[in-house]
Specification:
With 412 residues, this protein is mainly beta. It is built from three helices and 24 strands. The chain has a single domain, classed as TolB, C-terminal domain (Neuraminidase, 6 Propeller).
């Protein structure tokens, strides 16, 4: 009887492992150090192509499941069409609304103040008011920065402005535009854009390549700011130490290039490195670690296809001198804002990367070890809504949806 049970258990395990491999064209790596091991990949849909990943675990890694009890609360709803939710230095939340204003909310979701007086935005397509960031000395100077789609020279650009926040008056003062991602174009898609301060007080700005065939090739051109991550000072000047400052015919603001539509930035608290999320076309959404002067490949290499189903360019995924993503998705989840969980309340989440997913309609949790993704989980999938952005604040995560709902996720 014992022999029969052992044989039956072996058959069950063989079938389960075969099912896992059938769902993963790259063969998942089972990592015994995860909080819950051996789960199949969370993605079960067929990929758009038979492209082979560059290394094991680059896509469709094995699933994990959070074991610490946590709770999800809707604390605000129907705020409009938001783009960003960002933790303020004083423990509150700033929400940007794409039509051109911001809202301060307290940690329980209550509206504190509407902020107006910002420059006009191009509120069309994927344009509008985008991200917001706070000066490292915000507590004393009340200066904040925001990115937006701006009408400029008859066309439009991704721009960054700064101003002093007058919270009592519900407005901003002394607005100055410090950066424009030239050249301007007629398109209203793929502006980017996220903002992230580094440890030196310089500002990273992610800029999309504006989608059109004419503009996408500029992601590879160093005389254009399209399809780039730039690093500037708080006055909009090229940051000291930028990799192309002394290179002829190159924009000195550029930090990295070869990007499609980078809509998420955050600093990994365990390494100090800049991580980025990037929309692919049909397949090929990416997570990247951003290093100075590196080329991230678009549109020369990609794990995605054109929306028509045709290959992009030569249909290659690897090329010498071009960086590989740490992780990619096929089919897409449409990764937008990202943040690392920096607290200890849910220990298994510490230094995990959380990715807001639009078309995937969930909050993606990526377990990171030695700069590799070793596990993936989908949260908020039961909400059946597009998650636009996510931020970390005081051991909690706050996620905002395209319909303007704010969800707070915390230990139960």
């Amino acid at each position: 009887m014992q022999l029969r049970r052992s044989f039956s258990l072996a058959i069950i395990l063989m079938v389960a492992f075969s099912s896992i491999c059938a769902n993963d064209h790259t063969h998942p790596v089972i990592n015994s150090s995860l909080d819950t091991t051996g789960l199949p990949p969370v993605e079960t849909k067929r990929p758009n192509s038979d492209y082979k990943s560059a290394f094991a675990g680059q896509t469709r890694i094995n699933g994990v499941k959070t074991t610490t009890p946590y709770t999800v609360e809707k604390i605000a709803d129907k705020l409009g069409a938001p783009f960003a939710i960002v933790a303020m230095p004083d423990g509150r939340l700033m929400v940007t609304i794409k039509s051109g204003y911001m809202e301060i909310h307290d940690a329980d979701g209550k509206l504190v103040k509407k902020i107006t007086g910002l420059p006009d935005v191009v509120y069309a397509g994927q344009g509008g008011l985008l991200d917001v960031a706070f000066d490292p000395k915000f507590a004393s100077n009340k200066i904040m920065y925001w990115s937006y789609a701006e009408k400029y020279q008859g066309d439009n650009v991704t721009a960054v402005a700064k101003a002093k926040l007058d919270e009592a008056g519900g407005k901003v003062e002394n607005v100055t535009v410090i950066f424009r991602a030239a050249p301007s174009t007629t398109g209203n898609l793929q502006f980017g854009s996220r903002l992230q301060f580094d440890k030196n007080g310089d500002l990273f700005v992610s800029v999309g390549e504006k989608f059109s065939p004419e503009s996408r090739v500029q992601a590879q051109q160093l005389n254009s700011l399209l399809g780039k991550i730039v690093r500037i000072t708080t006055d909009g000047k090229p940051a000291k130490g930028n990799p192309f400052i002394n290179k002829p015919d190159a924009r000195p603001e550029i930090f990295s290039y070869g990007h499609r539509n980078p809509d998420g930035l955050d600093i990994n608290p365990s390494t100090g490195e800049l991580w980025e999320s990037e929309f692919g076309p049909r397949g090929g959404d990416e997570i990247n670690i951003i290093h100075a002067g590196k080329n991230y490949g678009w549109p020369v290499i990609t794990y995605g296809r054109e929306y028509s189903g045709q290959q992009v360019g030569e249909g290659i995924q690897q090329k010498e001198g071009m960086e590989q993503p740490v992780y990619y998705w096929d089919p897409v989840i449409s990764p937008c804002g990202i943040c690392f969980y920096k607290g200890n309340a849910i220990p298994e989440w510490k230094n995990n990367l959380f990715v807001s997913s639009l078309s995937g309609q969930h909050l993606d949790r990526l377990v990171i070890k030695d700069n590799k993704v070793v596990g993936e989980e989908r949260l908020l999938a039961d909400k059946n809504t597009r998650i636009r952005d996510v931020t970390y604040l005081d051991n909690m995560l706050y996620a905002i949806t395209d319909s303007g709902d704010i969800y707070r996720i915390r230990k139960k």
